[in-house]
Design goal:
Elements (H helix, E strand, L loop, with lengths): L10 E4 L5 H11 L6 H9 L3 E7 L7 E10 L2 E9 L8 H15 L4 E7 L3 H9 L3 E11 L5 E10 L2
Parallel strand pairs: 4-5
Antiparallel strand pairs: 1-2, 2-3, 3-4, 5-7, 6-7
Helix pairs in contact: 1-2
Length: 160
């Protein structure tokens, strides 16, 4: 268990614009092209976006992961889900995804889509554990820093 959690699970709640800087730092750590805080603020304020964060339960209480999905009609798509590197493998992603699935379903979405880099085995395993299934592939979708490309797996999960 993470020292930040001090054996307590993370606390998950909706993100606010006050969390945008911390979310941008986590996103930059997890992706070659991190999203700036201003873009994250816009998404958090967008009525069609479900924005959730998990925070350490210890006295520091900092953001350790977040998920953003856009809902449209009876479908939604995960725009990004990211966990601080130092907290990966400690249950944060599972806590975050479980809460996020429930909140997206409450918005009326009946199915949730996502795309994930084909080489991200940990994320793919988490998504499959939560019932996501492969439904497609986007060839050469991700460009690696320094050259090279990777496919994106498109996954779907029914909600409700």
């Amino acid at each position: 268990m993470s020292p930040l959690f001090a054996s307590r699970p993370p606390v998950c709640r909706p993100l606010s614009v006050a969390d945008a800087d911390a979310a941008a730092a986590i996103h930059a750590e997890g992706f070659a092209r991190g999203w700036p805080a201003g873009d994250l603020e816009s998404l958090i304020l967008d009525a069609s976006v479900v924005a959730d964060g998990c925070f350490s339960a210890g006295w520091l209480g900092g953001l350790v992961g977040f998920a953003l999905s856009r809902a449209a009609g009876d479908e939604a798509e995960i725009l990004s889900i990211c966990v601080r590197r130092s907290e990966q493998g400690r249950g944060v992603g599972a806590a975050l995804l479980g809460r996020h699935l429930a909140r997206v379903g409450q918005r009326g979405a009946r199915q949730l889509f996502l795309e994930v880099e084909e080489g991200n085995a940990a994320a793919i395993a988490l998504y499959r554990r939560f019932g996501f299934q492969d439904v497609g592939r986007r060839k050469s979708y991700y460009h690696k820093p320094g050259g090279g490309v990777l496919d994106a797996l498109v996954m779907r999960r029914p909600l409700g």
